[in-house]
Amino acid sequence: MKKSLLFVPLLAALALPAHAAAVAQLKAFVAGTRTVSAQFEQTVTSQGRQERAHGTLEISRPGKFRWSYAKPYEQLIVGDGKRLWIYDKELAQVTSRALDAALGSSPAALLAGDNAIEANYKLREAGKQGGVEWLVATPRQADSGFSSLKMGFSGNTLKEMQLTDSFGNVTDIRFDALKKNPPLAADRFRFAAPPGVDVLSE
Question: In which domain of life is the source organism classified (predicted)?
Fold first, then answer.
């Protein structure tokens, strides 16, 4: 299940009323948040099996992000505004492709891209569960790579995301130590392949 790791760059604390509905909080986040840093825990469930991963993420909107997996194996995904770089340390391999083509209407585009949320997604409230306000974002394009995305907010903070792909695999991402608009150095979103690593460009 290693290749199910997502390059979904995701999220931050929101300066909104504590009881604002989830859709309103998402719109305010996209409109008012330029940079994000957070820690995350990811669980991928596929055919009854689960795989967990941990790491950190950073976002500089629009189009720049750094999504780093530390456990159980190292993988780095960097969007520099023009290209998407995926570095698999174990395989000693880098894959690079045009950022626009790689993101499309993916969750990465939703959070690190422009403000056209409702142009690419149908949004609806999904109610409150366990103190968390949920929304469902359904992509308008069939080739987005996932069938639905749920986002949960609590106390002005995006706490969790749940993604279901076209094969029924479910990825749950929980966030911790979220920071909104932290200062992030520009070189965090640049990538240079380590010496001796194969680079595959598309």
Answer: Bacteria
Residue of 100, 107, 93 lying closest to 79 (CA atoms)? 100
List pLDDT tens digits, range 109-152: 667 766 667 777 888 999 988 888 999 988 887 666 678 889 99
Q: What are the tens digits of pLDDT across the range 23-68?
A: 888 877 777 788 999 999 999 999 889 999 999 999 998 889 998 9
Question: How far is Cα 59 from Cα 184, in angstroms, rounded to an integer?
Answer: 9
Which residue is listed with tokens 């795989």? 51
103 pLDDT exceeds 70? no
CB distance 171 to 162 below 8 Å: yes
Q: Domain-by-domain residue ranges, the chain? A: 10-193
Closest by Cα among 63, 183, 162 to 115: 63
Residue matched to tokens 């194996």: 73
Tell me how far apart the alpha carbons of residues 132 and 56 are, in angstroms, rounded to a whole number: 22
CATH code of the domain occupying 10-193: 2.50.20.10
- 3-class SS letters over 88-153: ECCCCEEEEEEHHHHHCCCHHHHHHCCCCHHHHEEEEEEEEECCEEEEEEEECCCCCCEEEEEEEE
